[in-house]
Every structure is written in C-alpha cells, then in structure tokens.
Design goal:
five-stranded antiparallel sheet, 34% helix, 10 strands, single chain, alpha/beta, 8 helices
Length: 258
C-alpha cells in the first residue's frame, strides 16, 4: 500500500474525519488498475491515489462516499462490458473492497472547572480526543487534564472561527460565566452533540437572550440543556458520568429518552 496515501489518511483522521479506502484486490483481463491499487476517498469528495481511473474510479468514488455516509464497509465487483452498470468494452473484471477508517470522536469542553475536569478525565478513558478551552492559564496543569489532547487559551469566538467542526465533534459548555457567549458562537457549527450545563431557569434565560439576537429556534432545539441523564447524586463525579453517558449513547445512536 502506498505510504503517501496512508499519510493522507492519517492527516484526515487527526482532523476527526473518517476516510474510505478503496482497495483493488483482483484484476482480470483488460480491466484498468493493478492488484493492490488503493485510493483514499475523503468526506468532502476529494480523492488521493488511483485504482486505474476512468468510469470505474468515478463510480467507485460515489460508492465510497455512500459507504462513509452509511458508515458501512463494502465490497465491489465490476465485470466490464456494455451490459453492466459501468459500461466498458474491455471485457475485464475488477474486485476489491472499501474499508472505513474511523477517527476518534473529538470532545470540546468549554470550561476547565470541576465538572469540565472530571468529564475530561473520563472522556480520555472512553476513546475521545479531548480539547479543553478556557481562558484561565492556571487551570492548564490540573491533574484531571493530564491526558487530554490540547488545552486552548482562547476566547469562544476566536476558537470557533478557527476550529474544524464536523459530525465527529461533541461539545460540552460548562464555563464559569460565559456559557451564552460560547453557545452563540458554536450553535450553527457542524457537530454530533451540543450540551450545556445549567438549571432550567438559566437555560431558559440563555435561550431567550439568543432568540432575541435572532438565533433560529430550530438550532436551539438541538441543544441538550440541561445536559446529562438524571442519574447523578449531585456530586461533581456523578454529574460528569451522567454527561458522558448521554454523549456515548448519542455517539452510538442509542439515546435514552429522559
């Protein structure tokens, strides 16, 4: 397998994006491509590498994008004549499969307070790449944040304008006093989960303020707030567990109605 292709795959995975890899395992007759040819297909439709070009590569790119969307690996078998789906007269055959490389989910925690710290520690143990965003530099070296991927000292607007949000992004807002500012800056981004800590009274106030600023109600309806399943005893540790439980259930498409 081409090392350059693998490098490009790794780059995308590090961005939190899944990649499909089309691998040609068998070529017969006059079919294009060679055995073990590979082509990476990215979520934005771009490709890297080739399995021989032409109509087969075009059709296989579409199949790979569908595999990414459905998150299902697939095999392919092209018999090349004018009666088949891909009409070519060369009379050969191409076989192979599409493998999905899945990026680790990325959890963005706005706020490095007690709940944020405990949530970060648990999330790093459950397969999440964790980024904590906080403007307090003295929180950077807290013990519970030892295993996170990154601690970012930026304001919400600056961070959100420069971060590559996608469907593999999970967001938890738990700041000391600027949750509304964070929510305003991330609510229209691409994400799988967006939650905010707070009482029902606080959530209502924040939502009312954002509606007055013109934020669409449909966007607000997607926010999990108050966040977490109602299973905790009020302690910081159990609040963090209740939040990660909800996040994991949504990641695995097994959300439990509260």
């Amino acid at each position: 397998m081409d090392l350059e292709i693998l490098r490009e795959v790794v780059k995308e995975l590090e961005k939190g994006k899944n990649v499909a890899l089309a691998i040609l395992t068998e070529t017969k007759g006059s079919a294009p491509g060679k055995d073990n040819s590979t082509m990476a297909v990215f979520e934005n439709g771009k490709t890297f590498g080739t399995i021989g070009g032409g109509p087969i590569e075009y059709d296989l790119t579409k199949k790979a994008l569908k595999a990414l969307k459905e998150d299902k690996e697939k095999s392919f078998d092209y018999t090349l004549n004018e009666k088949q789906e891909v009409k070519m007269l060369c009379g050969g055959q191409n076989k192979g499969y599409i493998k999905i490389f899945r990026a680790n989910p990325r959890l963005l925690i706005f706020g490095a307070g007690h709940v944020g710290q405990k949530l970060a520690r648990i999330a790093t143990k459950t397969g999440f790449n964790v980024v904590v965003i906080d403007q307090r530099e003295d929180f950077k070296n807290k013990k519970d944040l030892e295993d996170i991927d990154q601690f970012v000292l930026k304001k919400p607007k600056e961070f959100s304008e420069n971060f590559d949000f996608n469907k593999n992004t999970y967001i938890l807002i738990a700041t000391p006093d600027y949750d509304e500012e964070v929510l305003e800056n991330v609510i229209d981004k691409d994400y799988k989960f967006l939650g905010m800590i707070g009482s029902k009274r606080k959530v209502k106030r924040v939502f009312d303020n954002l509606r007055e600023k013109g934020v669409d109600k449909k966007l607000l309806d997607k926010v999990h707030a108050p966040v977490g399943y109602p299973i905790d005893d009020g302690s910081v540790e159990e609040i963090a567990i209740s939040i990660i439980s909800q996040i994991i259930s949504i990641k695995n498409n097994k959300e439990i109605n509260k």
